[in-house]
Amino acid sequence: MTALLTHNFFMTHDLLIQSAQLTDGRLVDIGIGAGVVQAIYPANSSENVVTATTILPANGNVLMPGLVDAHVHLDKTYVPMTNHSGTLEEAVQVWFAGRPQLSKADAIARASRAIECAISHGTTAMRTHINVVDRQDLEMVEATLEVRERYKQVITLQTVALGLAGASQSRDEMMDVALRMGVDIVGSAPSFAPDKTAALQAAFRLAAQFGKTLDLHIDENNNPQSGELEQMAELTIAYGLQGQVVAGHCCSLSFMNEVDAGRVMDKVAAAGIHIIALPSCNLVLQGRNQFPAPRGVTRVKELLARGVNVSAASDNVRDPFNPFGNYDVLSAAYILAHTTHMTGTDELNLTREMVTAHPRLAMGLPACSVAVGAPADFVLLDSNDQQDAVLCPPYRLATVKAGKLIYKAEIRREWFMCP
Ligand SMILES: [Zn+2]
């Protein structure tokens, strides 16, 4: 007994994950309690005298930090609306035409379906934008905040008020109401404003007024002169918000010449803006009726090379903006790797970080890893090959959030006549 105690191997945990393969190749048992990693043991060590309330056998499969989806639209997801042209313009028209048929109860049901789907893919944190245009949208805000409360034990859900401060008095009032209702972050889509500069300035003023951070839809178009990202970088520095603001899309960066793009990316790096690339939605909406069709995804490699924190996320799923998706952010990494030519081993490993560590940083969450004291948010893959995560995203066997087993799947395979 003395020897065991000396080695600190007599422990009781809330959860013990046995024989997990880490992304550095180590095979370990992980003891978890009070929401954090309490101990890491060599797997199957006969010296381990460990007990736990719940035991999760990993059987040599790969355990990763929990996935993080930093940009979704839960208010729009799974609506039965069709966008025939596939353009962003028609998506917006279809959304507003169909919106009167949506109810708060329906919004809660759709968002709940999305969250449970995300958890079943290993997602432990998510950030959703919610339209805040007029009074009818406030029902969707209420619905999303109720869903955030309902699922707070099993997923971190951050909310962004996607309005257009500075465009009109009524738009300003709606943003004010949404933020007072408890929405976490100031959002905007300046491309839709009559005066983009005024909209950007108003968003920063509003964030300062409420003491909030910003997460904006920026340059979601193929116009190289769009200019929103550069202005956003300048405002971020002017307001002293370096490292605290997020820009999604940034498509027009890919349509700029090298000189202009380099200048903008240098400013983004200096401002510490977190960039969220949204490959599925960009491939669907951008570059319609252009030949050859551009990819529309932002300049991921060039931003990373400048030290910018770039993430990949789902964006719209199963709505007029994007008919595809299943809230599996590893699929976003898979599509991003294709569209941005991130194909070397180091690049593929980095792509994996773009749906784990990078979005955690963008969302202001503490870093997560298999290290003593780290938050215990994990996903267990149905694979013993760590390269599979991005190369061919496997089924997920378990999701652990804040030290608790939230989801578990058992896959039974039978082979016949196979030599
Ligand atoms: Zn979006």
Question: Could you please describe the fold and organization of this structure?
Answer:
- The protein is an alpha/beta fold and 419 residues long.
- It has 2 domains: 2-65 and 368-408, Urease, subunit C, domain 1 (Roll), CATH 2.30.40; 67-362, Metal-dependent hydrolases (TIM Barrel), CATH 3.20.20.
- It is built from 14 helices and 16 strands.
- The strands form 3 sheets. It has an 8-stranded parallel β-sheet with strand order 6-7-8-9-10-11-12-13.
- A hairpin with a 2-residue loop joins strand 15 and strand 16.
- Helix 3 crosses helix 4 (135-150).
- Mean pLDDT is 94; it is low at 1-7.
- The protein binds zinc ion (ZN).
- Zinc ion (ZN) binds at residues 71, 73, 129, 217, 248, 315.
Summarize the helices and strands and which ones pair or pack.
Layout: H1 2-6, E1 10-21, E2 27-33, E3 36-42, E4 49-57, E5 63-65, E6 67-72, H2 88-98, H3 104-120, E7 123-131, H4 135-150, E8 156-163, H5 169-181, E9 185-188, H6 196-210, E10 214-218, H7 228-238, E11 246-249, H8 258-271, E12 274-277, H9 279-285, H10 300-305, E13 310-312, H11 329-339, H12 345-353, H13 357-362, E14 378-381, H14 388-391, E15 396-401, E16 404-408
Parallel strand pairs: 1-4, 6-7, 7-8, 8-9, 9-10, 10-11, 11-12, 12-13
Antiparallel strand pairs: 1-2, 2-3, 5-14, 14-15, 15-16
Helix pairs in contact: 3-4, 4-5, 6-7, 7-8, 11-12
The structure holds zinc ion.
The site of zinc ion has 6 residues, from loops.
